Amino acid sequence: MMLSKTCKYAVRSVIYMAANYNENQKCGIKVLAEELQIPAPFLSKILQKLARFNVLVSNKGPNGGFALAAPPDKISLYRVVEIIDGKELFESCALSDDTCDGRREASHVCALHDSYSDIRKQLILTFKEKMISDLLSEADGFPGNMKF
Question: What range does the domain containing 136 cover?
């Protein structure tokens, strides 16, 4: 399972905003793009999508920008990944293009079904339990320390 580059940018951006979390402070797209070394137009589209799904709030104008819609300890990694890469990431089969519903039917099972099923379940659990605040803590409080 690999996160898309778009998803990695989204996670890094949300962690950056968590590091600068203040209910009244917004992050401007230019500053955010420069700090995270992400092309501004691409980042803007990512952040707009996160805002549409209420992970972020956005305001236009001279004092505008993006900010977390909730405290960092209320936003899960799973939520961000699901919005950007979709649930298919957690449902796809390891060796085929099919979706795995978790059932073991002889005609619809790949060679890694049982092993990958356990890995997938653990991954989902980990992503749901891992909050943005946890990722920030693990990055020593500075998004520049993050490695993706």
Answer: 5-142
pTM: 0.84
| Distance (Å) of CA 8 to CA 12, 58, 111, 148 | 6, 20, 29, 7
- The CATH number covering residue 25 comes to 1.10.10.10
Backbone angles phi, psi at 112, to 5 degrees: -105, 10
Summarize pLDDT for 61-90 with one digit per residue, the tens. Answer: 877 899 999 999 999 999 999 999 998 877
